[in-house]
């Protein structure tokens, strides 16, 4: 049995706690956070502490705190030499855990929000460790969670994280802009939902370039000019113009 302690009480901590509770061969012995009590969305059976100095002994310490706090938490964490300390960030170097004897990274390439349902089996887990023995150990745990475990170094992981920012965060911000434009003009923004759903559905069986449609892909100059004219006085002008230029520059000849 592998004993795990999670540090942090946010979205990633919540989803790891759920998957650990639902898998054999791995046990969640404690969650440690800075809040007085554990947030209500966690399973009631979980043991909780808000004192990192009294953290229970575990085989694995999974640091699931904001990127900027990983270093601070790592420095506060006193673990025995057999335990491995792992963080879950896409962008923080593994070496920030180097004060520990055994350390690694387990970055889940997925977007996590508390209250969303996620099947860990299909999440690519990007892993790294400070020795081949520890890498085997991180792989063994990751295999319990997912069917897709990928070994990468810190630079490759950062590149994966950058591409995830484009694929997920930026595309979603485009949806936020689309929603604002409709709301500002008293049009129900929910009419966008079928379009967004169909776009993402298509990406599952077509190449991303094959999914692209619209005036910029066709280089319909008159339509683009009309859009830009209407957006002239708004904060959306620059982003529309820039993305349109980028799409026109991309080679959409398939
Ligand atoms: N969310 C995602 O989609 C996603 C995906 C893959 C990887 N990750 C990585 O997973 C990690 C956790 O992300 P998350 O989305 O779960 O974040 P989150 O929901 O914002 O939760 C952040 C957690 O960090 C704690 N924290 C922040 N600053 C702290 C400090 N100075 N001292 C102690 N605790 C502190 C917060 O405590 P309070 O609640 O008390 O503020 C909270 O428990 C990050 O490294 C992130 O890059 C996130």
Question: If you had to describe this structure to a student in words, what would you say it looks like?
Answer:
The chain is elongated, with a radius of gyration of 22 Å. An eight-stranded mixed β-sheet has the order 3-2-1-4-5-6-7-8, with helices on both faces. The longest helix is centred in the middle third of the chain and has 31 residues, at 154-184. Helices cover 41% and strands 15% of the residues. It has helices at 11-21, 70-76, 132-145, 154-184, 193-202, 208-211, 215-218, 221-231, 237-249, and strands at residues 2-7, 26-32, 48-49, 60-63, 84-87, 103-108, 125-129, 149-151. It folds into two domains: 2-152, Rossmann fold (3-Layer(aba) Sandwich); 157-249, N-(1-d-carboxylethyl)-l-norvaline Dehydrogenase, domain 2 (Orthogonal Bundle), CATH 1.10.1040.20. The mean pLDDT is 96. Strand 7, helix 3 and strand 8 form a beta-alpha-beta unit. With 254 residues, it is an alpha/beta fold. It binds NADP nicotinamide-adenine-dinucleotide phosphate.
């Amino acid at each position: 049995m592998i004993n795990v302690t999670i540090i942090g009480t946010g979205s990633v901590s919540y989803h790891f706690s759920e998957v650990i509770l639902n898998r054999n061969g791995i046990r969640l012995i404690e969650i440690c956070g800075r809040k007085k009590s554990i947030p209500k969305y966690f399973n009631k059976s979980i043991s909780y502490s808000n004192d990192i100095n009294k953290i229970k002994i575990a085989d694995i310490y999974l640091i699931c705190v904001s990127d900027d706090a990983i270093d601070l938490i790592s420095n506060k964490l006193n673990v025995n030499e057999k335990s491995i300390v792992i963080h879950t960030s896409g962008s923080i170097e593994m070496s920030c855990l180097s004060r520990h004897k055994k350390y690694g990274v387990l970055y889940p390439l997925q977007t996590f929000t508390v209250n969303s349902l996620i099947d860990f089996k299909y999440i690519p887990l990007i892993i790294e460790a400070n020795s081949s023995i520890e890498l085997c150990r991180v792989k063994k745990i990751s295999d319990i969670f997912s069917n897709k475990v990928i070994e990468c170094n810190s630079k490759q992981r950062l590149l994966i994280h950058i591409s995830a920012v484009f694929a997920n965060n930026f595309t979603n911000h485009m949806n936020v802009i689309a929603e604002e434009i409709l709301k500002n003009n008293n049009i129900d923004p929910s009419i966008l939902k079928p379009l967004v759903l169909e776009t993402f559905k298509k990406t599952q069986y077509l190449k991303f370039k094959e999914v692209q449609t619209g005036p910029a892909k066709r280089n319909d100059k008159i339509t683009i000019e009309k859009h830009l004219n209407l957006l002239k006085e708004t904060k959306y002008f620059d982003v529309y113009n820039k993305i349109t230029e980028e799409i026109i520059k991309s080679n959409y000849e398939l």
